Fold this protein.
Amino acid sequence: MTGPPAAPALKLRDLTVHYGDRPALLEVNLDVPAGQFLALTGPNGSGKTTLIRSVLGFLAPEQGAVEVFGRPVRSLAIRDRARQIAWVPQEESLRDDVPLRDYVLYGRFPYRGRLEGDSPDDRRLADRILSDVGLQDRASDGILSLSGGERQRAVLARALAQETPLLLLDEPTAHLDISHQLDLLERVRTLCRSHGVTVVAALHDLNLAARFADRIVVLSRGRRVADGTPSEVLSEDLLARVWGVAADLEQDRRTGLPYLVPHQLIATPRPKPSSAFVGPVHVVGGGGAAAPFLRRLAEEGYGLTAGTLHLLDSDAEAAEALGVPSAIEGPFAPLGPAARERNRSLLTEARAIVVCPFAVGPSNLANLEDVLPFVRRTPTFLVSQPPIGARDFSAGAAESAYRGLLEAGAVEVDDLGSLLAALHERLTILSAAP
């Protein structure tokens, strides 16, 4: 007598997520059986990262549900979730130069008691995984000494140390050369085949997806528009319709797999920006304060940058969804030197600065302080409502920094509407200047 069929590793039902008024996912339905390698593809802003973060339970959908092995993901305690799902993000901010073996052992935290250290079994597991990803000879080296390709394999090794049945990868091949892309995805596919791990990987490259994945799901503007095997999904029509690129569909004679050879963009009329100036405008925020400003400024045709934002912050999600370059710090961490340097680099390129009405505490006070050196040469607008005193959680340091910006020449505006008027007026004057 057979029992009921096993629950899929991942189940999405009518999943809908918005960033403010902007839809990021719309009624997405998806079943992923255990042991499958699924590639999630689509243009920038199509919803790939939003889907992955919904599966992780980081985002609460407005509609629909996410289940992992038959259980609603948001009903799982963090420790239980970490025993079911491992995650390799697009970028991981690595600040401490810990030995690589110790970094991999971070993946064992879900299995330890409050005061427990690494067990001999944990250390043996870490060494085996380092061997599996080809880094056994670097086990004692500091992680910051690794190359980009080695570091991405190290992040994968940390995720594998969690020993979860579901592995999520968000653009794991970004910033890697072709040899490291092939190496990483081959290792992931081997893991899927040999250990039955279910893999969901967001990938930009359709040809890489076709080469390694069992199944491809294509998202466009938050909707699932194609789903099937590589041979079923890859087509000239798909690339033209979703990416706006004309291509020829070919077949690899060695593997029989399809691949696309793009040859030109398909001309489409682009809306003319309503603003006389297109940027970049650098938007400073956090905690959701910047998201409505980013969306409206983007709609008005301004080029944008943002920073510094914490990973998983809703402002960081909005910036990513809009394709806005930003400086990113780890969740809840004080703004570190690398993130601040990135932010200052973006500030240097800005033609205008907008400081949104974000709550300021010790961990993000540097966002105000880093603006000060740029105020005298770059038009700077401070959104004043609610007033700084109501959102200063830094024992007066935020109010002091805010006054310093005003004294240096920053201009206060009340809200989004008055900002748009002031920004347009000021930048039109600058654009007309000889």
